[in-house]
Amino acid sequence: SSFYTVVPGCLSVVIKTCFFFFFFFSFAGHGNHKENSPFLNSSEAVKGGDYYDRNLALFEEELDIRPKVSSLLGKLVNYTNLTQGVKEHEEAESTDGSKKKVSKSPSMGTLMGVYLPCMQNIFGVILFLRLTWMVGMAGVLQSFLIVLLCCCCTMLTTISMSAIATNGVVPAGGSYFMISRSLGPEFGGAVGLCFYLGTTFAGAMYILGAIEILLTYIVPQAAIFHPSGAHDASSAMLNNMRVYGTVFLILMAVVVFVGVKYVNKFASLFLACVVISILSIYAGAIKSIFDPPEFPICMLGNRTLSRDQFDVCAKTIVKDNITVASKLWELFCHSTNLTTENCDEYFLMNNVSEIAGIPGAASGILKDNLWSNYMEKGEILEKAHHPSVDVAGLKNNLHLYVLSDIATSFMVLVGIFFPSVTGIMAGSNRSGDLKDAQKSIPVGTILAIVTTSLVYFSCVLLFGACIEGVVLRDKECVSHHPWCICLMFLFLQVFGHGKANGEPTWALLLTALIAELGILIASLDMVAPILSMFFLMCYLFVNLACAVQTLLRTPNWRPRFKYYHWALSFLGMSICLALMFISSWYYALVAMLIAGMIYKYIEYQGAEKEWGDGIRGLSLSAARYALLRLEEGPPHTKNWRPQLLVLLKLDEDLHVKYPRLLTFASQLKAGKGLTIIGSVIQGNFLETYGEAQAAEQTIKNMMDIEKVKGFCQVVVANKVREGIAHLIQSCGLGGMKHNTVVLGWPYGWRQSEDPRSWKTFIGTVRCTTAAHLALLVPKNVSFYPSNHERYNEGNIDVWWIVHDGGMLMLLPFLLKQHKVWRKCKMRIFTVAQMDDNSIQMKKDLATFLYQLRIEAEVEVVEMHNSDISAYTYERTLMMEQRSQMLRQMRLTKTEREREAQLVKDRHSIARLESLYSDEEDEGDPVPENIQMTWTKEKCDAEKRNRGSAVGSFRDLISIKPNQSNVRRMHTAVKLNEVIVNRSHDARLVLLNMPGPPKNTDGDENYMEFLEVLTEGLERVLLVRGGGREVITIYS
To answer: Where is the SLC12A transporter C-terminal domain (predicted)?
Structure first.
């Protein structure tokens, strides 16, 4: 019958696959891909001599970095997106003076470039080998539903693909290029490889379909393996498929490697053969109305018999006017005479009859084929409502009936049929060869899907209206035209469009090996669901890419194709996901696992290009939404966590001076929350911008080493104190701002005559207090543990002297979350005065910690009132004498340097003034001309100044300490004694940091108090709260 013509579209998919694989590695390989920039580099610009156009003199200083419009347009016009052009572009862009290669401009239109290739890809082996079987199993109605689901999936995907493909130039690379530019290289690589694997398995499926036709209908005698018993036919057929499939795969690999460009010229001819074969279906259906073909089916009762082993459908035959046993009788009764002793009971009780296998469209068989007839594996094909006596037959005779080789259901048939609607990417894969890809891809692909969908729907209807149900459900009960079968070998050799140069040898080898895996499966019905998963995964992400871009409304999302909507993309994505799990849930999970592994691998390796993908845009939109939500009000105490601003100091070589500050920050944060690393470069922004960039990169490298996840901000300011104030005020964005400042201790401030370091430190403390921020000052930070150390024992001691909102309780808990501090125990000390009930205080503190869900050992330290010791008095006296002495030394140094100013130029004068004046204070402007004339008044004043300086040194001996300073020193000394006594062996000591004095004259004394307070402790963390509660007993 003509409408049973089988023309497999065969292994040509392998050819397309090889080149897709080549394209993928060209784009995703390490450093192979180079995106063309429309901007001219400076060498091209100077060579052209266009930058000195008199009409553009106003812009001549910018033309070395910004091209003229004419140059830009000229470069864009010369842009080509052919795949093999990647290497040629690099050669063409080189300025070595070599002769540029002239690439052939794309010339394909919609018909030859998109419509026909898509038709050629979509029509395949499933249409000719499995569609009739699907109609027989699922019935016409459910077959319509299967075709509708699959075609809707591809149509919605095509709409999304058309929007993406028309949003700018799409070079070759197909789905990989589109998805990687929309969702990022990780998604593009994962989905691109899934598409590659699906296409490779499609090649294996087409080969298996061709071998099935070859061994079943054309030359069955060519089988190498033969069944040894009645039940070994299936395994023998599978082994034959494996052997012949491997041979054909090798043949196809050779064809692709050697002569694909020649065979490809016959692609249109082969497509014409496919179209003729499909047209023959319609011709045969029309012919069956008037003259149904003779195609008898032999029935035993209501069971369908396999005619491979007999030719006469009767129990007896008349031979020389004698009734004798037929071959059928011999098979069921195991006897050549008409005895019934060993006959099958079902054979004896039921009659043998013949029915028309193809009754024709006018027979009314359609109503019998409307409903499904799903079967289990090994079940006999039966005709409903056919006269039959229901008795058990012998199991040894099952091979004489037509049996179902696999268990069928709606889900199984979806997975088997879906490959027959794939191939919609053929147009986008050829985008480099299209004259107008943005017009041809949508029109050609949509027309191809509409055409193929109409063919599928009409074929389902015609098969159900013309063919008997038992014939439809029998995969092998199909007749073929020999002239169409002969075309099979030609179709095995061509499909897809390849390039003559740059044959991907290694990619071809890998593709052949992967296809061989499909060949070894040896079952068309098993391979089809596998490639369905990979194609559905690809289509799912195409829809996701379009939906994300549409919802984000990115400025660059301006597709020429206007008939799309995010709801359609989400619907297509949902259908793809549903079809994946409907077809085979375990195959779907495996495909997702493979895609996820590829995604994580590419993410781990790191993408070398930033393409402005939609996932980054999605992250920006999500961040914006979250920031706006955070602006609705301050965070609740339960949600409070330290958002750190770490102030780093850099040395002269722009190296981080105390990297352990970053280590401490990473241990405190454990990778959670906000961390901003800030630093200040002193100078003018216009002059030190490059230095600031280098400093920022240095800090980022150090953050990577210390595994600190956060942001870096380097500011340039005339004064360090102003820069720190700017960081404290402006770091962060909206509700995502820092609430805690980590500040390093100014080491060596006692030995230095320069007061800048400790003045900057105290100024920062005052800034954080004014901004209501918490402050952490790690002292002796160089002794803090690295991230590689582990404390297997030890204590973290908290000295809770004044309440600061709970910071002292929360910080040890956060530190213990990190592996370095995890095994340390927490001890909390509080100080009781003479009038306090220390026993009750200990009970209350233990109850408070229990309610806070913090495990810690509680101790109350009693401090008795005692007289001020001579040691305290002496320390205070030494502190004040030192302050007075340094002040006098700075004044004396000023007088000495004043003489040197007379022989220096104005630049040296400014520098010398800064030596004795605080750099944080604005100095007096230096006059342009210095008068170098000595007068009598100047000489007398100089002598008086020298005399007063000498007298000041003598006054240091008779100085008396301030009583307020004595009291403060007494507190520092007594607390230090208690802390050192109890916590000298602690891994870390946390204590309240007293605030700086309101009067700035006592700043230097404040530093001395802090030194005395922390003396003798190896690792100290001074903590100052931000004025709000940070911990709560409530859930």
So the answer is: 659-776, 789-1035
